[in-house]
Specification:
Number of strands: 14
Keywords: Heme, Iron, Metal-binding, Monooxygenase, Oxidoreductase
Strand content: 5-15%
Structural class: alpha+beta
CATH topology: Cytochrome p450
Organism: Caulobacter segnis (strain ATCC 21756 / DSM 7131 / JCM 7823 / NBRC 15250 / LMG 17158 / TK0059) (Mycoplana segnis)
Number of helices: 18
InterPro entries: Cyt_P450 (IPR001128), Cyt_P450_CS (IPR017972), Cyt_P450_E_grp-I (IPR002401), Cyt_P450_sf (IPR036396), Cytochrome_P450_monoxygenase (IPR050121)
CATH class: Mainly Alpha
Radius of gyration: 22 Å
GO molecular function, one term: oxidoreductase activity, acting on paired donors, with incorporation or reduction of molecular oxygen
CATH architecture: Orthogonal Bundle
Cofactor: heme
């Protein structure tokens, strides 16, 4: 994928990270254009935008014979996400269905409402605070693995580290020990079959053209069987009192709206949904934040000073994370520039009107955080890395043009979980290591299920004591 690299920071001045080449004019209008768009989106979901899209707040389109609307206006986005007349297109769940089953991530309607209500107690601030020891342990393990290295692939390190954190928080299992089989299956699925393929865009429904999905079914079946076994084991021998609680503990004690326990299959599917939603997304957030800080060493030094003034070892609850406002702002600015879910859609269940545009039943509304977060009418200097823009925003969810975790009733229930995990892991790394890029080649975002890099660069690692000597 060609890159716009003219503004990459190599000295003083604002940092403008490189992006994929933007088309000068809109694509679409003919079957050949539709196939070209489908092909480009199967390679990179953000690869079909044009210059006009970063100025227009609403754009009608036709794709594969269906009308649609790209909505970047915050009022229109709010209307679509809050309206019961729009639902997530079922086919968008195709890549993850064999792994995540019927959990919260993919469920709809009344089933989703019931599940969301049942899971809410597991994601309160107090509940997430109880998981912090798992994140601290995973961050320490990751950093220890980097301790004797002068050069490292941090994309790979964060993949392992966040998977370790999620498995610890879900099951009290370590990715390199008693959770090794779970880790192997999860990585194989989420780094391969979970990503969109050309047939996923061409198919009309979740079960169309699935003849090529044998790898998804095989790996998904293995994962679900492993989680079934863990649930049975935990029911037979409840967890000991001498370890931090985990999410499986909470799901086993959760109650449905009727007051009864959750069925084992639902517990399994919820665990799988949490893995699918919380592993690679947090890994990508950490990679892009580190990439930006490596490009901006002055900001990296300021973040490190903040962390050293209140070390990770002093963190006992979520309130303690408020001691790192700049670190938090760096993560928010990273999510603005590199939203982990760069594009999603809603399908009209009935005829609707959005911002004066008719949306017939069955039509698609496309909402792209990638587009909205870089929109020229919604942000000041939208292409510039400027974490300070969030320092005066203690609750950035109030910014209507900021959608890193979606919006409306289906806003991500695990946002607090992911941010706490990312803050602790990144703080642990930065407290011990200075980080720089080993080369100046641009790293271009490529979007599928999440927003990853087109290559995994090496980072230079310098121990803090050595760096300050």
């Amino acid at each position: 994928m060609d890159a716009q690299v003219r503004d990459v920071k190599v000295g003083p001045g604002p940092l403008v990270p490189p992006v994929p080449k933007v088309h000068p004019r809109p694509l679409g209008g003919s079957p050949l254009d539709d196939l070209r768009i489908a092909w480009e989106m199967s390679r990179n979901l953000i690869g079909a935008w044009c210059e006009e899209d970063f100025d227009n707040l609403v754009t009608p389109y036709h794709f594969m014979g269906q009308p649609g609307l790209v909505v970047s206006d915050p009022a229109g986005v709010r209307q679509v996400l809050a309206s019961p007349n729009f639902r997530r297109p079922l086919k968008l769940g195709r890549p993850l269905k064999p792994l995540a089953g019927e959990g919260l991530l993919l469920s709809e309607g009344e089933t989703w409402k019931r599940q969301r209500k049942s899971l809410a107690p597991a994601f309160t601030p107090a509940a997430i605070g109880g998981l912090l020891p798992h994140f601290v342990a995973a961050g320490a393990s990751l950093t220890e693995g980097l301790a004797n290295q002068t050069k490292a692939n941090l994309s790979e390190a964060f993949h392992h580290g966040t998977l370790d954190a999620v498995l610890r928080a879900l099951f009290s299992r370590r990715a390199d020990r008693d959770g090794a089989v779970l880790a192997q299956i999860a990585r194989r699925y989420l780094e391969g079959p979970a990503h969109f393929r050309l047939l996923d865009f061409i198919g009309r429904g979740r079960d169309d053209l699935t003849f090529a999905d044998g790898d998804r079914r095989r790996l998904g079946g293995r994962w679900l069987a492993e989680v079934d076994a863990l649930i049975a084991q935990r029911r037979a021998a409840p967890a000991a009192d001498d370890r931090p609680g985990d999410l499986l503990d909470r799901l086993l004690t959760a109650r449905d709206e009727d007051g009864g326990p959750l069925p084992d299959q639902e517990i399994r599917d919820q665990c799988s949904s949490m893995l699918a939603a919380g592993f690679e997304t947090t890994s990508r957030l950490l990679f892009w934040a580190t990439y930006l800080l490596a490009r901006d060493p002055e900001t990296q030094d300021r973040v490190r000073a903040e962390i050293l003034a209140f070390p990770v070892e002093r963190v006992n609850g979520l309130d303690d994370l408020k001691a790192w406002p700049l670190l938090r702002s760096v993560l928010f600015e990273t999510l603005r520039l590199y939203p982990t879910a760069p594009t999603f859609g809603r399908q009209a269940l009935a005829d609707e009107t959005v911002l004066g545009h008719k949306v017939p039943a069955g039509a698609m509304v496309t909402i792209s955080p990638w587009l909205i977060h870089r929109h020229r009418k919604l942000w000041d200097a939208p292409a510039v890395f400027r974490p300070e823009r969030f320092l005066d925003q203690p609750h950035p969810w109030g910014i209507e043009a900021f959608l890193p975790f979606g919006g409306g009733p289906r806003v991500c229930i695990g946002a607090g979980f992911a941010l706490a995990e990312a803050q602790i892991i990144l703080a642990t790394v930065l407290a011990r290591l200075e980080i720089a890029l080993a080369d100046d080649r641009p790293v271009i975002p490529v979007a599928s299920i999440t927003l990853g890099p087109d290559r995994e660069p090496d980072f230079l690692l310098t121990p803090i004591v050595q760096a300050r000597a």
